[in-house]
């Protein structure tokens, strides 16, 4: 039996109607290097989406490989309750140093983005309980996405993922996300909502600057500032979900550097290990931490845990990622690269069935605004695979979110391949 048959016999793939694989090819990857994935015929595919937004410095990056190998001969894993290890200590100190001026100073680890969201929500709720204040609602933005475990799904607003589980989910308040630079109506809505519910809300959670799974909706940092200003009047905690946008995606190390308002809790994952190993971290202020710090009998501790919390191999990868940011001038280079990406992709504006061209840092996106066929995004996905590109359109939004090591000629190849696909006029 070949690999693909054996796969479909036993594997239930994520985020997939498995019946689609009756016609949709399954890409089995034999090996990878840099931005390229190779199949068993040694055909190369450019990973245009950083393998679901996790890969920063290419596949099989020599430096990260060497750091994981080095760690592997010392310590693979140890529980993080009662024990610690150098990698997680260094990583925490480095992250907190970067975030020092934003007062984010305590790291709580888990092993995936959704878990970091669960932690943030539980922690915010528990914070108020420890202060003898009863608050039990959460506030989120329309079109948001925070992961797919039950609480994370509750604070999301992407119907596709949510619709079957409505009866299971937490009671969450939604307020509209800004669409352009005039967001007075959205703020008015929020103001009214807060007048009624402000004192019942533990936390306002948002993905700063880009709602990635929300079809790459990019929105104003000014809106974030104004919305948070309103929330602060009611003592509401602020959670930034930078699971996708953290680690340089928006051309600053963290998106929070681009707003004046700062969070009390920050969730990071995806790029943290450069796409190597599962790891996430919630970083909060001392103010939050101190609300849990007391004699055991006072019953205030945050008794949350995951088996693989702070895994040593994952921390070695994460420290290697921070080394690369420090040594390779990544953010400055990305500013130049993102300009090149913009210029190349804008040439696709000639197609009148494409629109809403937009960019934030190392994320470029546009929409298919007129299409004859259903699932036009999926059609582009298939055609792109034939041309050696791994894309994964979100419905009819096509986006480019490559590893930072992509070269100009590779970007140009992606755009010229897309142009060929669009020129056939089959959408
Ligand atoms: C991917 C993502 C999550 C969930 O992370 P997982 O590791 O997939 O559980 C949460 N928030 C945002 C913004 C994401 O993009």
UniProtKB/TrEMBL annotation:
<comment type="function">
    <text>Catalyzes the transfer of the alpha-amino group from S-adenosyl-L-methionine (SAM) to 7-keto-8-aminopelargonic acid (KAPA) to form 7,8-diaminopelargonic acid (DAPA). It is the only aminotransferase known to utilize SAM as an amino donor.</text>
</comment>
<keyword id="KW-0808">Transferase</keyword>
<feature type="binding site">
    <location>
        <position position="241"/>
    </location>
    <ligand>
        <name>pyridoxal 5'-phosphate</name>
    </ligand>
</feature>
<keyword id="KW-0032">Aminotransferase</keyword>
<feature type="modified residue" description="N6-(pyridoxal phosphate)lysine">
    <location>
        <position position="270"/>
    </location>
</feature>
<keyword id="KW-0663">Pyridoxal phosphate</keyword>
<feature type="binding site">
    <location>
        <position position="392"/>
    </location>
    <ligand>
        <name>substrate</name>
    </ligand>
</feature>
<comment type="pathway">
    <text>Cofactor biosynthesis; biotin biosynthesis; 7,8-diaminononanoate from 8-amino-7-oxononanoate (SAM route): step 1/1.</text>
</comment>
<feature type="binding site">
    <location>
        <position position="52"/>
    </location>
    <ligand>
        <name>substrate</name>
    </ligand>
</feature>
<dbReference type="InterPro" id="IPR015421">
    <property type="entry name" value="PyrdxlP-dep_Trfase_major"/>
</dbReference>
<feature type="binding site">
    <location>
        <position position="270"/>
    </location>
    <ligand>
        <name>substrate</name>
    </ligand>
</feature>
<feature type="binding site">
    <location>
        <begin position="113"/>
        <end position="114"/>
    </location>
    <ligand>
        <name>pyridoxal 5'-phosphate</name>
    </ligand>
</feature>
<protein>
    <recommendedName>
        <fullName>Adenosylmethionine-8-amino-7-oxononanoate aminotransferase</fullName>
        <ecNumber>2.6.1.62</ecNumber>
    </recommendedName>
</protein>
<dbReference type="GO" id="GO:0004015">
    <property type="term" value="F:adenosylmethionine-8-amino-7-oxononanoate transaminase activity"/>
</dbReference>
<dbReference type="InterPro" id="IPR015424">
    <property type="entry name" value="PyrdxlP-dep_Trfase"/>
</dbReference>
<dbReference type="GO" id="GO:0030170">
    <property type="term" value="F:pyridoxal phosphate binding"/>
</dbReference>
<feature type="binding site">
    <location>
        <position position="145"/>
    </location>
    <ligand>
        <name>substrate</name>
    </ligand>
</feature>
<dbReference type="GO" id="GO:0009102">
    <property type="term" value="P:biotin biosynthetic process"/>
</dbReference>
<feature type="binding site">
    <location>
        <position position="305"/>
    </location>
    <ligand>
        <name>substrate</name>
    </ligand>
</feature>
<dbReference type="InterPro" id="IPR015422">
    <property type="entry name" value="PyrdxlP-dep_Trfase_small"/>
</dbReference>
<comment type="similarity">
    <text>Belongs to the class-III pyridoxal-phosphate-dependent aminotransferase family. BioA subfamily.</text>
</comment>
<dbReference type="GO" id="GO:0005737">
    <property type="term" value="C:cytoplasm"/>
</dbReference>
<dbReference type="InterPro" id="IPR005814">
    <property type="entry name" value="Aminotrans_3"/>
</dbReference>
<keyword id="KW-0963">Cytoplasm</keyword>
<keyword id="KW-0949">S-adenosyl-L-methionine</keyword>
<feature type="binding site">
    <location>
        <begin position="306"/>
        <end position="307"/>
    </location>
    <ligand>
        <name>pyridoxal 5'-phosphate</name>
    </ligand>
</feature>
<keyword id="KW-0093">Biotin biosynthesis</keyword>
<feature type="site" description="Participates in the substrate recognition with KAPA and in a stacking interaction with the adenine ring of SAM">
    <location>
        <position position="15"/>
    </location>
</feature>
<dbReference type="InterPro" id="IPR005815">
    <property type="entry name" value="BioA"/>
</dbReference>
<comment type="subunit">
    <text>Homodimer.</text>
</comment>
<dbReference type="Pfam" id="PF00202">
    <property type="entry name" value="Aminotran_3"/>
</dbReference>
